[in-house]
Specification:
- The protein has helices at residues 53-68, 104-119, 136-148, and strands at residues 20-27, 72-79, 83-90, 129-132.
- The chain is built from 3 helices and 4 strands.
- The chain is globular and about 45 Å long.
- Strands 2-3-1-4 form a 4-stranded antiparallel β-sheet, sandwiched between helices.
- A hairpin with a 3-residue loop joins β2 and β3.
């Protein structure tokens, strides 16, 4: 029996190691809410979100990305209950090529691996979603989206209402 092939969401012939800005979303397996301590209804007012033990590991992993990859800069990010958004820049030299050319896939794989090793098992779904930032307006929209995402958690497409036991 042949397994179904996964449809690629990557742009054909695009070099994901080239200098540029990328908006990346990485979800937990089965979209389990693992990264916040206080996941629940906000009743119209902002809650202070506190990262869980796992959420703190993810936060640490994101901060380590530029250490592992000096040409990668984290412009903005947010750790949500069941996913992470990262706006990252791959810096280039005069020719526009990164000095050390990590692909987005390599950066995400390393970050997921670090988290899995620290926690003791993987919490991630396979793959990730990315968007290539095309211009300043696109950049500002995604930057603002990251800032506002915690305030709009219950409206988020990745929100899963907790079932009562």
């Amino acid at each position: 029996m042949e397994l179904a092939k996964r449809k690629s969401i990557r742009l054909k012939d695009y070099d994901y190691g080239s200098a540029g800005v990328y908006f990346v979303t990485i979800c937990t397996k089965d979209r389990k809410a693992l990264f916040w301590n206080n996941v629940g209804a906000t009743t119209g007012r902002q809650q202070e979100t506190r990262l869980s033990k796992y959420g703190k590991v993810v936060d640490e992993a994101i901060h380590k990305i530029p250490i592992y990859y000096p040409d990668v800069k984290i412009d903005n990010y947010v750790v949500m209950p069941n996913h992470v958004h990262i706006l990252l820049s791959i810096e280039g030299n005069i020719d526009g090529r990164p000095l050390v050319a990590p692909t987005i896939s390599r950066v995400v794989k390393q970050m997921k691996g670090y988290v899995s090793k620290q926690i003791g098992h993987s919490v991630w779904q396979k793959s990730f979603i990315d968007h290539i930032i095309r211009n300043e307006k696109d950049y500002l929209e995604h930057y603002t989206y990251i800032d506002n995402n915690p305030l709009k958690w219950e409206e988020d497409e990745l929100y899963i209402k907790k079932e009562k036991a």
